[in-house]
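Kindly review this record before class:
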Amino acid sequence: MLSNCSGFYAYGIFEREEGWPGAVVNQARIAFKLQKNLFGYMALSDDRQRVMPSPEDREMGQPLAYKEAVLLKSPTNSDLEGEVDDKYQYSIENKDNRVHGWISSDPPVGFWMITPSNEFRTAGPLKQDLTSHVGPITLSMFVSTHYAGEVVGMRFQDGEPWKKVFGPVLVYLNSVSAGDIPLNLWEDAKQQMSIEVESWPYDFPHSEDFHSSNQRGTVRGQLVVHDRYISAENSSAKHAYVGLAAPGEIGSWQTENKAYQFWTESDNKGYFSIEHVRAGDYNLHASVPGVIGDYKLDVNVTITPGCEIELGSLVYEPPRDGPTLWEIGVPDRTAKEFYVPDPDPMLINPLYINHTDKFRQYGLWERYSDLYKDGDLVYIVGVDDYRKDWFFAHVTRNLGNKTYVATTWQILFELDIVKQNSIYVLRLALASATDSELQVRLNDEFANPALFSTGRIGKDNAIARHGIHGLYRLYSIEIPSSQLNDGSNIIFLRQSRGQSPFQGVMYDYIRLEGPSDSNSFDKH
């Protein structure tokens, strides 16, 4: 606790000494349970806040497809009758999870979890996690497998030493006078959050394991994109997520779970500055909205105390073999741009009516069988609109009596003339996968073997947990010209596993590229 601070700081130093036996840690967090008769209003952001049910309301509710989701029946507050409550509806990406908590109207006080830095959280800025939910409960999640699976849990080998500082985070308490508006507590909490972010790294921790500002360094640079089939000129990597993570493969940051990560967002011209980085060796990674794939600098970045490293202009050349013949979606690592249906009118959380995050409504996976009663999705390139005609999740079909079957989607497209003795490439980017196997076939729905199979992938569980994305996967599938027709063609996408309503994939982006040829701007 500090003087003149209305609250207290909390952190943990986790350590394994050399010689300890192997272990698995899938979850590490700070949790607070508040007085249920006082705190009834929850706030996560300016547009995600509401009056919440009580624990007793949940106990009296009707259980839905899994224990976390209930339909409220005869709640204490009759205005909540018939609503769905599910803690996963209140998840937030790490990059946006700065302040959340609860308000009591009598007395008018607030309880808030403020996280000034994401450096100690696992799996990067886009990892989603729990925040606050019925209890009333407020969490600070350090490690979890939510929206990713056990691949992001911490696994230690026999004898492996390790140490990490989680936090500090601030538990902030505020109040207003009896005649003031209780919602002003939220505005005050946001202001305090800004103060904490500006104060990072803190100067008060006395532990040598928490590095002060003079023990840290800065990395600056500019990221540009060069796609030779789009333009001869480089384009700015606008609003890219640029970060430093432990050395690994391309994209390894999204499953990295033991070390620290440091991220920032580039400006309109791709310039970035990553500040307050702990000393050590890192890879520099980036994800650019509107551009497929992941960028990784091909040399390590070594941070020493007080260093200021200027990387200059870095060029990302995203995966590309030929010109775009057609594309579906937007490469943004989510399925948010696709058609997200309205929920069953009997299974609604009013918070997400007319909301940009309508995908957080319960039970949207069941709407596929309602909307596609007579057959699976068929998408016609050049005719259909992915915003209206491409369902947000490739899920199983519900036959009733808890019976589910695999589904096969079709993409119909035309090629005027196929260039013989050439290779076409299908770029298939997935935003999420849960216990799935996606098979790709061309012009023969029953070809055996398939042109391509992902094999069994994914434990994201983002479909059940209203996540719109989990772990990102990108596949590049070569198509010999001999398998294509002049004129009409069909790509069959089969999600072949069908035992559960929650099995399936979410697509991020699909693109068919023609053969490499002189249409590249680099060859002009």
User: Anything to note?
Assistant: The CA atoms of residues 121 and 142 lie 5 Å apart. The first helix runs from residue 55 to 60. The chain has a mean pLDDT of 96.
